[in-house]
Amino acid sequence: VHTQGWAHCHTPAIDASGVVKAVMDGLFEEFGSMNMPAPVRVSLACCLNMCGAVHCSDIAILGIHRKPPMIDAEWIDKLCELPLAIAACPTAAIKPAKSAGGLKSLEVNGERCMFCGNCY
């Protein structure tokens, strides 16, 4: 099972295509010659949101976000709608802030962030 997260999802942590190609190159002979002791389901998902059905696979590869988002106060107001970014956070780790120049910005509480990627 392979999902194209970057094509339809707004929260992918990885681009799965290269990883899937490498895994399938390594497993091609095993699947082609039917040498496995039982049917095996291998899946890869770009994030933890379960569109790759990783919870019901024998071997699952997941992409994860590992760091809270970095905020560039100079550009954030020009690139995204701040209220939507605040509302997208399920743990309320993002709150409005003012930058040193008085520009509207955001502040991320790294301890509350669960690395879901909804704010990207």
Form type:
elongated
Number of helices: 4
Q: What is the string of helix and strand elements?
A: HHEEHHEE
Described by strand count, sense and barrel closure, the largest sheet is: 2 strands, parallel
The count of strands amounts to: 4
Distance between the termini: 25 Å
Helix content: 25-40%
Into which percentage range does the β-strand content fall?
A: 15-25%
- Average pLDDT score: 83
- Strand-pairing-aware structural class: alpha+beta
The count of domains is 2
Measured on Cα atoms, how large is the radius of gyration?
A: 19 Å
Architecture overview:
This protein has two domains: 5-62, no CATH class; 68-120, 2-Layer Sandwich (Alpha-Beta Plaits), CATH 3.30.70.20. The protein is 28% helix and 15% strand. The protein has four helices and four strands; from the N terminus they run ααββααββ. A two-stranded parallel sheet has the order 1-2. Strands 3-4 form a two-stranded antiparallel ribbon. It starts with a helix and ends in a 12-residue tail after the last strand. The model has no long low-confidence stretch (mean pLDDT 83).
Short description:
This protein is an alpha+beta fold and 120 residues long. It has four helices and four strands.
Feature tags:
2 domains, two-stranded antiparallel ribbon, Alpha-Beta Plaits, 4 strands, 28% helix, alpha+beta, 120 residues
